[in-house]
Amino acid sequence: MSITFYSLGAAEEVTGSKHVLEIDGKSYLVDCGAFQGSRAEADRKNRELGISPDRIEAVILTHGHLDHCGLLPLLTKKGYRGNVYATPATRDIASLIMMDSANIQAHDAFYLRKQAHKKGEKFDWQPIFDEQDAIQATSQIMGVSYNRPLTIGSGVRLELFDAGHILGSAMAMLTVQQNGEAVNILCSGDLGRPDKPIIRDPATALPAPDYIVLESTYGNRRHDRTGNAMQKLADACTRTIKNKGCILIPSFAIERTQELVYYFHLLTDEGIIPEIPTFVDSPMATNATTVFQVHPECYDETIREAFIKHHKNPFGFNALHFTTSVDESKALNNHPGPLIIISADGMCEAGRIQHHLINRIGNPNTTILTVGYMAENTLGRRIRNREKDVRIHGQWFTRRAEVEEINAFSAHADYTEALRWLKSLDTSHLKNILLVHGEPKPQAAFKQYLADNGFPQVEIVKYGQTYTLHEDGRRGGGSI
Three-state secondary structure along the chain? Predict the structure, then answer.
């Protein structure tokens, strides 16, 4: 038996998760995500998978974020017809994400073609995949519930455990067994945080892993406490009411938007803030909220107690409005304050948030509230860094809006939470931790932190480099 591991994305970077386990010559792909960053670089990286589809025995999808599922349609476009294993909630969310990506690409192609025609220029850019490819990818996703082990290849068993990151997110435990030997490889996907609303905490009752492929997004940062976040939201609302301004929140359509709605609902119900017109301006977030409503099996006990047992909708209150049409979105440009606008994309790289930024970034009564991770070279990162002038849709805008950051809303475990989760596992068989999904500085800090706290065997995964996990009769041989 031989097992090797290599990464074709999210290696010393945060997006584009694509990890390969080679087991006796057969490839198992864990996630097939899109790269997000500067447009030219993202387009270049997202046109190549790095692996031939005919080599892939099976695909495991840990959750439905774009940087984990976004290139599944390209995989099917190039001929992959095998199973994609994911939880039912992940299947529904990934379907929305993939179709939305296809629609955005089609819209961009139409717009760019029209602009090139006006200039008399040649236009040769084509979408990476289309709606039919997204439909095909969705048709190949096989729903697998948590804690239901199944065989996905010769001598290879898969079991999914709740990762506590977003609705339906999973850690994937692959158990490879041959000739009486068994090796457990745990792929964390994106590891969530304890005590988050709506969903359960990351699972800890797992078989003892021999190897852990672990995300490291916040390897050198700690999050605010949830109570502090609630207070910051309340304070921002108080200022907005006083100034008759706008709180503009770039937010991922999946999980973050529903979490914000949940918190604003609590603040209103408890009388901490008055009702403020609140708009979720994202068709994707509107559709995703419907997905949340039909998957109560993923809820934690808190949301059951607060809402479900009392037949209340946790994702709706009197002041909340979901906009769907373009005209409704445009009408928000002239909506008087105070108001709250939650809009995608979370990194400000696409979507309606860009139009709201164009309209409001120059207004000192606007508060831009960043509530999640902003990758390098994104518009969101530049705003979070409080750059004075930013470029949106090819034009420069001077930022006069206030910028505030709330770290408590991150769906990723910080370095202290990741360590607590590790220490809660049975690590008696653990040979090595492979760090993925993180930028170099946080990863280096996290590696040292783990070494200082009892986990010295840690490897920072390099793009394309092969790591031998097991060779015949020799556990942990090869490069690690």
Answer: CCEEEEECCCCCCCCCCCEEEEECCEEEEECCCCCCCCHHHHHHHHCCCCCCHHHEEEEECCCCCHHHHCCHHHHHHCCCCCCEEECHHHHHHHHHHHHHHHHHHHHHHHHHHHHHHHHCCCCCCCCCCCHHHHHHHHHCEEECCCCCCEEEECCEEEEEEECCCCCCCEEEEEEEEECCEEEEEEECCCCCCCCCCCECCCCCCCCCCCEEEEECCECCCCCCCHHHHHHHHHHHHHHHHHHCCEEEEECCCCCHHHHHHHHHHHHHHCCCCCCCCEEEECHHHHHHHHHHHCCHHHECHHHHHHCHHHCCCCCCCCCEEEECCHHHHHHHHHCCCCEEEEECCCCCCCCCHHHHHHHHCCCCCEEEEECCCCCCCCHHHHHHCCCCEEEECCEEEECCCEEEECHHHCCCCEHHHHHHHHHHCCCCCCCEEEEECCCHHHHHHHHHHHHHCCCCCEEECCECCCEEEEECCEECCCCC
